[in-house]
Every structure is written in C-alpha cells, then in structure tokens.
Design a protein that fits this description.
Blueprint: E1 15-18, H1 26-39, E2 43-45, H2 51-58, E3 64-69, H3 79-91, E4 96-100, H4 103-107, H5 111-122, E5 128-131, H6 139-151, E6 156-158, H7 170-179, E7 185-189, H8 195-203, E8 208-211, H9 214-219, H10 223-226
Parallel strand pairs: 1-2, 1-8, 2-3, 3-4, 4-5, 5-6, 6-7, 7-8
Helix pairs in contact: 1-2, 3-5, 5-6
C-alpha cells in the first residue's frame, strides 16, 4: 500500500472507521459498515455488542471488523472480565481488538498484574492493540508500559484511547515506532480530523489510524475540520 497527501482516497486502507456511541442503533451500525466498505477502509471499529451484525454486513468485502474493551472508560474492568469478553468478541468473529490497560497498576509498581491483564486478552487469539495513554505516564513509565505490553503479546502499540487523553501527534508515534520490536506495529488514535494530520502520523510510522472522521478525511468533508468526535 502507499498513500499520498495529494490523494486523500489513498489513505483509506490505513483507516479504522470508528463508531463507538451510546444509543447506536441497528441502522447506524449497518450504515457505518457500508461506509467502511464503500471507501475501502481497513476496518470498521464497532461496539462489542454489534460485532456479529458487523461481521454479517461486511462478509466478503475485505473490510475487517474490530472492537474494543475496557473502553471508553479505561482501566475499570477486572482482568477476568476482560479475558472473558475478549474470548466472546473473538468467538463472534472480530478480527482485531483494542484494549484499555491498568495504568493505576503500572503506577503502583504492579508490573506482573499489568502484564497479566494484557496477556489474558491476547489469549483470545486475535491481534490486540494496547491503548497506552502516553500523556498519563512519566518517561520511565512509558518505557515500562511499552515493554510489558510487548512481553505480553501485543500486536500493536497505540498512543491513547481517545482525544480526551491525547490528540494524536507525530512525536508520540515516533516514540512508539522507535521502541517497538520487530513485528510490533503502531496505531495512532485521538481526534484525527484532517488529511494533513493523518499524513503526518503515517509519515511518523503509524500503520493504522483510528478515527470517526475517516469519511471526511478521504473526501474533504466539512465535519473533519469541526472535529465531531474524540475518536
């Protein structure tokens, strides 16, 4: 794949089209999946409860189905609950899973618990993206969080869960890319709302962009400039 700042549509294969909303309806979900297929996005990111329908709608399109757990309020689920939910999401047909981590445990020096929480989700058998909430961590904590995530089997490192934590920026992405081991990739997330921002994140080394503004980014729509969502 390749992308160009002068061809917005070329960014579509890097975008995970995100809609995680309270009150999402069946029609909303179907429309979201149809957009993902129409524009050729990498994946439709949907709430776990809607994964089975998303799988049905997107079957045969080549668009992945992704979901998230311990999100958008991060770090509140038990590790056992996360592991069980991850298995249920995988069994429902999801291709990938983004997860919140236990930042409080990391800050408390509970490294084994922090790592075990991630490993329990990884055990579900689908690629896991770990939302590291970088702005909440000291430099030393960042390094530990990244290394523990990779030790636990994370397939992707992710700078933050949403724009409420961090607006995705090239500095955070370059940090993650520089620390990632061979085979571990980086996803950017957090108020990605413009073509220029999206290109800067890909140039910094991200291979995926999580955003609810994907349609506007690839079409030059006006909602992107308004920043309609934190994802």
């Amino acid at each position: 794949m390749s992308y160009s700042a002068t061809d917005p549509r070329s960014l579509a294969p890097y975008i995970q089209h995100t809609r995680i909303a309270v009150g999402m309806t069946r029609d909303n979900l179907i429309a979201h999946c149809h957009e993902a297929a129409e524009f050729g996005f990498d994946a439709a990111m949907v709430p776990a409860s809607w994964v089975p329908l998303a799988v049905d709608v997107l079957r045969g399109t080549g668009v992945k189905v992704a979901s998230a757990l311990d999100f958008p309020t991060v770090g509140v689920m038990t590790s056992a609950g996360k592991a069980a939910e991850a298995r249920a999401i995988a069994d429902a047909g999801a291709d990938q899973l983004d997860m919140g981590v236990q930042i409080g445990w990391l800050k408390s020096g509970m490294d084994d618990e922090f790592a075990g929480d991630i490993a329990g989700v990884v055990a579900a058998g689908i690629p896991v993206k770990v939302m590291l909430e970088l702005p909440l961590l000291t430099p030393a904590e960042r390094d530990r969080a990244v290394d523990l995530a990779m030790d636990s089997g994370a397939a992707y490192l992710k700078n933050a869960s949403s724009g409420a934590v961090e607006v995705a920026n090239p500095d955070s992405i370059r940090y993650l890319v520089g620390r990632a081991r061979e085979g571990v990739r980086v996803k950017a997330s957090g108020k990605i709302t413009s073509l220029a921002q999206a290109v800067s994140l890909l140039d910094a080394g991200a291979v995926l962009l999580g955003t609810s503004s994907g349609v506007d980014i690839v079409t030059g729509g006006t909602r992107a400039a308004a920043g309609v969502s934190g994802y």
